[in-house]
Amino acid sequence: MKTIILRTASNYMLPLLLVFSVFILLRGHYLPGGGFVGGLIASIAFVLHAFANGLGNTKNLIRIHPGFLMPVGLGLSFLSGLSPMLGVGKPFMTGIWYPEKIAVIGGLGSALFFDVGVYLVVVGVTLTIIFTISEST
Amino acid sequence: MIEQLLIYPLLLQMALAIILMFAWNNTSTQKFISISGSTLNLALAVYLLMYVWQNGTQTVQAGNWEAPFGITFVADTFSATLVLLTAIAGLAVSSFSSGSVIPPRLKFGYFPIFHFLLLGLNGAFLTGDIFNLYVWFEIIIITSFVLLTIGGEKAQLEGAVKYFTLNILASVIFLTAIAVLYGLTGSLNMADLAAQVAAVENRTLVQVNALLFLVGFGIKAAVFPLYFWLPASYHTPPSAVSSIFGGLLTKVGVYALIRVFTLIFELDNLLENVLLVIAVLTLFSGAIGAIVQNNIRKIFSYLVICHIGYMIAGLGMMTEVAIAGAVFYLIHDIIVKTNLFMVSGVIYKLKANHNIKKLGDIYADFPKMSLLFVIPLFSLVGIPPLSGFWPKLSLIGAGWDTENYVVIGSILFASFVTLFVIVKLWGEVFWKNGEKLPELRNFPYFKTLTSVQKVQMVAPIVFLGLVSLYIGFAAENIQQLASRIAFELLDNQEYIDAVLNSAKK
Amino acid sequence: MEVLLAFMIGTLYASGIYMILRRSLVKLIIGIILIGNGANLLIFLLGRIAKGSPPIIPGDSKVFIEAYSDPLPQALILTAIVISFGLQSFAIILVKRAHKVVKTDDLDEMNATDEFS
């Protein structure tokens, strides 16, 4: 599927979809969206790029092995779950929030970091799975 | 901080798994982290059990949501005991894998996955929420699939297909049962469900739902008509993996059965009879399967099935003595089965063969090691005063009290068959003059291993052997523990109060 | 709506079990996927479908006054979907590897581990 139209379009679609995935990630706390959906959209962006330009080019673009995102994301989620225990002595996974709103991001709290972790894990897992399946043909 | 003690084992396993994932390619670092982390986990689990023993049932409301709405983690004596047993088996297998699993397999993330498996086991034992239990079950089966298929040999993949299909089917049935339960009661918290289910008017639907749970957990616990995935898959992976599977995975199913049928559903006549029939048939089919097999690990697989029957029988009789017997058997079985599969691993490393017809001479060649292997083998049979004897005594006593003479008969039958199988195994593998086996090239024989690896393989067998000797000789302590667990299970008010009233304290 | 969904769930379960009982590996996976979807829809149905009544409380009250749609089943389904996503992708890779190694698609010929030795 190396048509010129798809290849040109995918070059523009990749950043657009990535920005959109971050948007979905950030609006996730009170509105539809969140880390899982955002992560899926981001990995779709890379999969589209791989369709158009070949797997090798996409891998060069990402540089790191997508599997590396899994422990990073897991660690981030884990620490955000741990933070209320270490910080304020509340049970595991209690949401703690910074009292003031911040522009663009909105409310800042441990749940956001948890979601970012989920996002990274989903991107890592999905890309690893899809790359593995498409490589082993 | 101390009030959240009960989730520390979970957090520790999670942290270990994440750290191990960062050290993906560095197997020697992984071995070090895994063994030292498991030791720390053992210390935590011992402390947790002591704490629960003294202060009663502990709860943590995750996310600080009050009890019937959020996910609750509960550690009563039963959960804490199983967490301790998981920690013991985990430490042993962690050390055994460091010594026995070949490096190419370790490169595929063996240790991180192993610790995720332990995380899932701990989670399943500690959770107080039925849907959360489903999630932990899924974590357990996904990680066990990976451990089962690491290496990708033909037998492994074939076994994995069977294991995979039936376990996914079990999960779907479990999920269906949860859906029906939620539709009936509108709650997922197990303590809350205990009251809600009793108030449901449509008793037939409750009974059907209980049977759905029985089938779902029954597949995982490998009871009579649902066990065929077990002997098809447990002999295929490396023996370190087999030992954690044989020791703990089916017992999670048994734990879930005991928990659900003591806490949520009242056992009525029909269910009791179903459980007893299943138990008797499991005892018979497992025992007969073990007689005919020649592959050591297949023999042990069938013995796993056979001995599940004891616990189901204890649950089915539903008196305090019977439950105490089942729990005692569970404690004994986890340690011994883990040990047995490790023994089979060492035998394989010694002779490069699994077939008892071809093996032999092990006593002549390795007398000290053979004497070590006596402990798990004969603990399993339950020759007094070794550990398998005492729970059977309780079970037979309970059977006498409830006049279930068929159950007593099948318990005795299964014990004698186990004795026969173990004696046959001893004769064939240890005493017989075996035929000369061809020396395989490229096979990592025990004698070619480094001394560190030898210690890593033999030390866990010694460790678990000592634990089962302790269970046998200090049976009074264990019996006390089992009786208290049985008391708490049958009188579940303490559990319910601890969960539902913890927020108001 | 409920009746329609109930029929759909029944069909999904039935066809899933039928597919699992077939001998082909690929159909096995299709069957597992169908049953999983049936279970997810079952949770959705049994959580009581209430249209157009989101579970939002006015700021000054503590409890729900009107009937509301239960948000929990959706969370449960999302979790179950995520889990089945992982399981299914593993299943596909497993079947592919198994097919490559065993060189057959027929489950009846995959009996090496059950053979008596």
Report a brief summary of the structure.
Chain C: InterPro entries: CPA3_antiporter_subunitC, NUOK/Mnh_C1-like. The complex is a heterotrimer of chains A (137), B (505) and C (117). With 137 residues, chain A is mainly alpha-helical.
What can you see in these coordinates?
With 137 residues, chain A is mostly helical. Chain A has one domain (4-135). Chain A is 69% helix and 0% strand. Chain A has five helices and no strands. With 505 residues, chain B is an all-alpha fold. In chain B, helix 6 (130-149) runs antiparallel to helix 7 (154-185), helix 6 (130-149) runs antiparallel to helix 11 (239-264) and helix 13 (296-317) packs parallel to helix 17 (389-401). The longest helix of chain B has 32 residues, at 154-185. Chain B starts with 7 loop residues before the first helix and ends in a 5-residue tail after the last helix. The model of chain B has no long low-confidence stretch (mean pLDDT 90). Chain C is mostly helical and 117 residues long. In chain C, helix 2 packs antiparallel against helix 3 (72-102). Chain C has a single domain (2-51, 68-111), classed as Orthogonal Bundle (Helix Hairpins), CATH 1.10.287.3510. Chain C has three helices and no strands. The interface between B and C is large, with 43 and 38 residues.
Helix count from the secondary structure assignment of chain C: 3
How far apart are the first and last residues' alpha carbons of chain B, in Å?
Answer: 16 Å
Number of strands of chain B: 2
Roughly how much helix do the residues of chain C carry, as a percent range? 55-70%
Which CATH architecture of chain C is right? Orthogonal Bundle
What's the layout of helices and strands?
The complex is a heterotrimer of chains A (about 140), B (about 500) and C (about 120).
Chain A: H1 4-26, H2 35-53, H3 55-62, H4 69-87, H5 110-135
Chain B: H1 8-22, H2 27-55, E1 58-61, E2 72-75, H3 77-100, H4 103-106, H5 110-126, H6 130-149, H7 154-185, H8 190-199, H9 203-221, H10 229-233, H11 239-264, H12 269-292, H13 296-317, H14 320-351, H15 362-365, H16 367-381, H17 389-401, H18 405-431, H19 451-473, H20 475-490, H21 493-500
Antiparallel strand pairs in B: 1-2
Chain C: H1 2-21, H2 25-46, H3 72-102
Helix pairs in contact in C: 1-2, 2-3
Comma- or semicolon-separated keywords:
heterotrimer, A: 137 residues, 5 helices, elongated, C: 117 residues, mainly alpha, Helix Hairpins, 3 helices, 62% helix
